[in-house]
Amino acid sequence: MAYPPVHRQLPSVPPPAGGSVLPAARVEPIPGTPFALAYLSVPRPTSGTAIGSLVAGIASLLVTCLVGCFGWLGAQQGVGALVGGAFAVLGTALGAAAMGLGIVGRRQQRRTAAGGRGMALAGIVCGASGIGLILITMVALLLV
Question: Helix (H, G, I), strand (E, B), or coil: what is residue 21?
Answer without folding.
Answer: coil
